[in-house]
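Section 4.2 – Deliverable D4.2 (structural model, holo form)

The reporting period included a commitment to supply a predicted holo structure for the target in complex with DQA. Inputs used:
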Amino acid sequence: MRLLVLNGPNLNLLGLREPEIYGKQTYADLCAMIAAHADEKGLTVDCRQSNHEGVLVDLIQAAYGVYDGIILNPGAYTHTSIAILDALQAVGLPTVEVHISDVTKREPFRQISYVGLYAEKRIIGRGLQGYLLAIDHFLQK
Ligand code: DQA
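Output (structure tokens):
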């Protein structure tokens, strides 16, 4: 099984960015954690990040025929991007939505998730561990 972990805007600044919300571990730490977990479970998992909506759409499109599933934290585009929702619907790949923070307990604008209309599972507020839980979800299927 081959999975794509896709992170949206500002997630490259993990560690620096509001550590009281997102923690002190960096984006590099996250990718290392994911690589170690994937290795342990015998999976191929690639990590990509972009601050640009169109690039995220391109990466979702390019995932078709290459990956068996997508683990997606679209960052702020979660709450705004119909283009990302359309890309997911177009390629039809199973997708797990991940949020590091508990968006359900934050500002009202974070209560909307376009990606959530498509994702088969949402993992919210579990910190970086959420990405590993998403990998496990694919393994258990
Ligand atoms: C986030 C939550 C979003 O509301 C925010 O814009 C992010 C990160 C999370 O992982 O908790 O960039 O997706």
